[in-house]
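Now for one record.
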Amino acid sequence: MLSEPSGLQARDLSRSFAGRAVLRGLNLDVRAGCLTVLEGANGAGKTTLLRIFATIVLPDEGDARVDGFDVMRHGARVRERIGVAFVNERSLFWRLSGEENLRLFARARGVPRQASRRHVDELLEELDLTEIAPRRVVDLSAGQRQRLIIARAGLGNPTALLIDEPLRGLDDAGIAMINGFLRRRAQGGAAVLIATPKADELGAEADVMLRLRDGAVAPWHETDESGA
């Protein structure tokens, strides 16, 4: 049984692809109000873990929950609570403007129309997207699209954020902006789980730093500097 009623919890989580074990009996707790950075090499299983919490991939064995709701039995309740951003994910309508995308996804999340206008405007301002919001996504730079995907993850004020490599391709200003955005979400009570192959630019913001290695999670202090 899982004892924590809020945040993200995994117990004895395993997942294989084509006979290759990616996650092996993984255990993890990300508390509400905590920003947790999970570092691991490419192919270590970070994205698989996030996709399990997002109900996109189901585990072979074990238990994963968001705010106490099981990802396999209560998928709809889980999806109501999470915001997700995956690296290189084509999760935006590229022929629509940035603003149109956010308004569309806000309505899909059930944000009332009147409230969604203010909500979207606040997200655009927070991530310095107001000026470029009328432009089509296809015309935006990679960094601007990355910030827009992060903004989309914040729609509806989710209680858990699952963020995959949020700083890829960003300049120093973009890194600071997204770091601040994620820190404020944690301070507001969300459980924030960030997966990255390199934690250098995120470590200062983290409440907890972990490494994913050999299919399992280990505290940062139990691994050496190289993660080898």
In short: Residues 223-228 have pLDDT under 50 and may be disordered. Residues 172-187 form the longest helix (16 residues). The two ends are 32 Å apart (CA to CA).
